[in-house]
């Protein structure tokens, strides 16, 4: 487990990002987000016009994908695969600034690559249905969309902190499953509202490849605000007061 930053040097994290192992961590974040967007967005594609994918179908695809990736890549990079998670951990003191920014760049690149490959392998008949881009539901205002995205991302990042806290022995070994189920639950609630992004990179990928950037900023403002709030709340009021290491997204 990494120790929390306590000063400017620890906050910036220059020593951490100059290590050779950090390149492996960046590759893991790129690969993880690539697979998440490719597999998750594939579940959003309509194959038969009369029977589009259901909310439950989409919810469990994203949830199980994240659970699988967390199990595989968690020990390598922490498997953030989400800028909101990285920023939330930055706020709580469990991720340095340079690491969070580097992760975010790799996550966005992985998401764009995942959407590009998905479009490349899709049959021509299905391309008219898009790449699973997130959008506001009928009648949902911009403010309502931001609030919903902030709430579900707050829940996700709060759970991330709780189940990876080394002081919480009752949650040890349950992190991938708990995080995956949290994502599934949030999707079942929020897909009709906003498409349930909870992840700025997941929204950015399809938007870049399809060239549709309308309201993309909503899916940055909402999740980042929710993730940072969760990190602050956990650090200030929900973490244990024992003199052990702080929570980390390492498994």
TrEMBL record:
Q: Where in the cell is it found?
A: Membrane
CDD domains cross-referenced by the UniProt entry: MIP
Q: Which UniProt keywords apply?
A: Membrane, Repeat, Transmembrane, Transmembrane helix, Transport
Topology versus the membrane: Multi-pass membrane protein
Q: Name one GO cellular component term.
A: plasma membrane
Query: Could you list the residue ranges that cross the membrane?
Result: 20-49, 97-122, 142-163, 175-196, 216-234
Q: Name one Pfam family in it.
A: MIP
Cite the GO molecular-function annotations of the record: channel activity
Q: Kindly indicate whether the keyword Transport belongs to this entry.
A: yes
> Into which family does the record put it?
Belongs to the MIP/aquaporin (TC 1.A.8) family.
Alphabetical list of PANTHER family matching this protein: AQUAPORIN, AQUAPORIN TRANSPORTER
Under the subunit heading, UniProt states: Homotetramer.
Q: Kindly provide the name given to this protein in its UniProt entry.
A: Aquaporin AQPAn.G-like isoform X2
Recorded source organism is: Dinoponera quadriceps (South American ant)
Query: Which gene is the coding source of this polypeptide chain?
Result: LOC106750038
């Amino acid at each position: 487990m990494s120790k929390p930053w306590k000063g400017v040097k620890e906050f910036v994290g220059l020593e951490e990002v100059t290590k050779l192992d950090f390149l492996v961590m960046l590759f893991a974040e790129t690969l993880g987000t690539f697979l998440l967007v490719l597999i998750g967005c594939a579940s959003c594609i309509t194959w038969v016009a009369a029977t589009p994918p259901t909310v439950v179908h989409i919810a469990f695809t994203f949830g199980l994908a994240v659970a699988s990736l967390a199990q595989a890549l968690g020990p390598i990079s922490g498997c953030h695969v989400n800028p909101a998670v990285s920023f939330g951990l930055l706020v709580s003191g469990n991720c340095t600034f340079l690491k969070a920014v580097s992760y975010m760049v790799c996550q966005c690149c992985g998401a764009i690559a995942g959407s590009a490959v998905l479009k490349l392998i899709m049959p021509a008949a299905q391309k008219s249905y898009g790449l699973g881009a997130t959008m506001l539901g009928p009648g949902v205002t911009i403010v309502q969309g931001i609030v919903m995205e902030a709430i579900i991302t707050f829940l996700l990042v709060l759970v991330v902190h709780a189940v990876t806290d080394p002081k919480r022995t009752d949650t040890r070994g349950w992190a991938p499953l708990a995080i995956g189920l949290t994502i599934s639950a949030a999707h079942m609630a929020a897909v009709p509202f906003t498409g349930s992004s909870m992840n700025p990179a997941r929204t950015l990928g399809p938007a870049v490849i399809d060239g549709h950037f309308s309201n993309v900023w909503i899916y940055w403002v909402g999740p980042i605000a929710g993730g940072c709030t969760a990190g602050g709340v956990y650090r200030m009021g929900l973490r244990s007061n024992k003199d052990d290491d702080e929570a980390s997204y390492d498994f």
